[in-house]
């Protein structure tokens, strides 16, 4: 599967994987700012944005292999790989399957634990409704209100409107496929302890989808991690507080570039 990807800038490659049910459009502020120092690649994961859904069974491993194929196609051997929420689950799958291609890891507003049985069952119900409705209404009702934090809701209506637009443009079939893939993802906490490269864990202090405990569990399990807490941000730190997010990622990735040259 050839993913559609936006690819801007030069320098150490930095791959950023988007949240559910968004697309590479969410990384606008990162492409604009971080491309001054890095080669920023922001693929649309399968089914979203400009990438086709294909026929594979739902799995975060399939999504991770798509990213590896993208690096092959671009002639990139190793990259800093990061993801936000669902993008983080795919990043963890990428580490399990393609660790030799990772220079460093960014895990934003995500978690390494698998779904509880109840959470997985909920996802499967959502997937069925997405397929039955052929609209993303269920996501607009249940997920959108939790995607950004209360400060963004109160003070930055334009950001909320932008996120709403991104959710509305998600294809229902891709969203259903991704829900099934996330429901089936394995626990990755043990894997973290074996990862040899440095990691940055980012967490929005007003995130209602993943918790600070999730973020700390990852930072503690990783042998070499730093944790950045982002104030006045909910789940979508990169969209809600792009400047703080970009500063943290730029500092982290620049230090990696220096040690690997
Ligand atoms: C996301 O933001 O990618 C999703 O909310 C993640 C999830 O459903 O676990």
TrEMBL record:
The keyword Hydrolase appears for this protein: yes
**Keyword entries, A-Z:** Hydrolase
Name all AB hydrolase-1 domain ranges.
13-240
Q: Where would one find coiled-coil regions in this protein?
A: none
Q: From the UniProt record, which GO molecular function terms apply?
A: hydrolase activity
Protein's name according to its UniProt entry: Alpha/beta hydrolase
- Highest taxon of source: Bacteria
């Amino acid at each position: 599967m050839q993913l559609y990807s936006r690819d801007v800038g030069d320098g150490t490659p930095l791959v950023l994987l988007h949240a559910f049910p968004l697309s590479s459009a969410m990384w606008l502020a990162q492409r604009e700012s971080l491309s001054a120092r890095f080669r920023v690649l922001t693929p649309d994961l399968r089914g979203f944005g400009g990438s086709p859904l294909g026929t594979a069974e739902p799995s975060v491993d399939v999504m991770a292999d798509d990213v590896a194929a993208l690096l092959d196609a671009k002639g990139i051997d190793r990259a800093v790989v990061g993801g936000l929420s669902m993008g983080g689950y795919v990043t963890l799958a990428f580490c399990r399957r393609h660790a030799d291609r990772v220079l460093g890891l960014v895990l934003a507003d995500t978690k390494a634990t698998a779904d509880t049985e109840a959470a997985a069952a909920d996802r499967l119900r959502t997937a069925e409704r997405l397929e039955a409705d052929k609209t993303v209404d269920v996501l607009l009702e249940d997920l959108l209100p939790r995607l950004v934090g209360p400060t963004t809701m109160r003070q930055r209506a334009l950001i909320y409107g932008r996120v709403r637009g991104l959710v509305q443009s998600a294809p229902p079939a891709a969203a259903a496929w991704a829900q099934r893939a996330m429901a089936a993802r394995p626990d990755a906490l043990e894997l973290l302890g074996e990862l040899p490269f440095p990691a940055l864990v980012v967490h929005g202090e007003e995130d209602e989808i993943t918790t600070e405990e999730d973020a700390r569990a990852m930072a503690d399990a990783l042998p070499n991690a730093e944790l950045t807490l982002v104030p006045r941000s909910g789940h979508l730190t990169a969209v809600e507080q792009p400047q703080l997010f970009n500063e943290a990622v730029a500092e982290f990735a620049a230090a990696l570039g220096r040690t690997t040259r």
